[in-house]
Amino acid sequence: MDHNKDVLRKIRLWGFVTIMVVGVVVAVVVGRQVQLVVVRGAGTVVASGSTTLVQSCLELDPEAAFSPASLSRLSDLVSARNAGDNTMLFRVMDSSGHVVFSTMAEEVGEEPEEVEFESAFAGETRIDIVDTAGNDALGNIADERAIEVLVPLTEPGTDTIIGVVETYKPYSQVAASARRAALIVWIPVVIGALVSYAGLSWVLNRATVEVREHQVEVASLNDRLHDSMMTLEGQALGTLQALSAAVDEKDSYTARHSLGVTNWAHLIGVAAGLTPVEQATLERAGLLHDIGKIGVPESVLLKPDRLTEEEFAQIRQHPEAGARILETIPFLDDIVNVVRYHHERWDGRGYPEGLAGEQIPYLARVLAVADAYDAMTTDRPYREAISADEARRELLACSGSQFDPDVVALFVRGGLPGA
Length: 419
Known about the structure:
Blueprint: H1 2-55, H2 68-81, E1 89-94, E2 99-102, H3 115-121, E3 126-131, E4 145-154, E5 161-170, H4 172-213, H5 215-250, H6 252-272, H7 276-288, H8 298-301, H9 309-315, H10 318-327, H11 336-340, H12 362-376, H13 388-397, H14 405-415
Antiparallel strand pairs: 1-2, 1-5, 3-4, 4-5
């Protein structure tokens, strides 16, 4: 129950944090978009006013549109418009890209090289927010930022573009509107976040009540599941014992050999400093490593002579067959690969997959040494056992080729009788 309370407490905490973070992110993103809309709206107004102002001063003759008289009228209107705090920078370019009018008189006649002008001459209205710091053209604007508007100038009454009007407006004049628009976004987002958290709290409170109500039922269910698992494990063990008995009936040597392998594997595991869990896994694998021989014919298992290539191929199948049998028993899944790979060789010439070196699971490498030693020191149908000293020499001879040299060293130093 305490665990469930702790989980619900964490869900409440992280739920609140998640809701707040998502709310802030949404508010910031949407707020910025709203601010951009406000800025674009202000820019559109500036664009319309600027083009109207310029068009009102133009001559009707397109070729004389920017005559000295028309530019003089435009200068008077701009000067009147820039009176007081409503200062705006103003620039007009003709269709060839030359400045014909500017609030900075010294740039008249120049041809500014800016990419934005190209899009404006193509008929696109551009509205951007720019920094004024370091920009000589914006030196008369007190704000740190300004709204830059570039709009195509068309001949009055037609769609013919005869120039571009560029206007800079102090950003502070629209900043207040942008902040108010952002605040309008923040208010419902904050309210929505609080409502969402209140809903989450209600759900969690209901969950707490239901957990408390079902505590006894859960405990009873756990007991029943435990009994069921014990029953399944008992049935699986019974099946395994039946398979082992069947192998023993076919070949009594295999059963004795498995006990011997388990004993030697245990000694190596102690010398290697395996954990209790690893030691238990290794010993179970030792007892069951030849379970796959259930599928090998008795004529092959008990043959008193050397095996033919075909017969040895049948023997080579027993690690994989044993692994497939053990895979069906969930609580033995930790020994499946130990059984599957206990005939792999350190040099990669083993079977079933030809793994090499540390690709082979460590417990399988330990089992390989224990298996080989027991096989050499016990009688087989086709040969007599060799002595412990001879087996020791054979292990050392095959160290680094068939066997992991570290495992052989451990066995020779601490595992063999009299070592």
